[in-house]
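Title: Prediction job returns without error message
Component: structure pipeline
Severity: low
Priority: P3
Assignee: unassigned

Description:
Job completed but the reporter wants confirmation the result is attached to the right record. Sequence as submitted:
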Amino acid sequence: FGLAAARSLVRGGQTETRPSDPRRQTDFAELGVSFTIADGVASSSDLDVRSPLLRIGGEGRIDLAASRIDYTLRTSVVGTATGQDRKDLDAVRGVTIPVQVAGPLDAPSWRIDWAAAAKEAIASRAAEAIRERLKGDGAEGKASDRLGGVLRELFKR
């Protein structure tokens, strides 16, 4: 699974499920998490994983007795890459990509919600475009007033 595939899935707003592949891995610089354990179930809501390229937060449960996991990861590309995948990586930079990890601990599967990622990407790009339009030539106040008027009119209905 490569970044080009990720970019096309974000654009298509699809969901993808795959089994885990223990041969593929990512090295992380930091990992922090705390668990509350009750009746053999470890629950967490503060996962914090960092690498030069990624940030991952998350919450979920691990049923130790049943040896099963149900965990939601919120993954964001934050760093810069060089080489062939750079352009593809730029398409998802700053977008939170929800990843559901579930199943037996020895062979969990993961499901990426590309539709949610695509919605966030569109909202983020729209906000960025609005900020850019409001910058610059000293017309910020006028543009801001016009935008405010449009938004008030839109939500009045």
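Comment from assignee: result matches the submitted record. The first strand starts at residue 15 and ends at 19.
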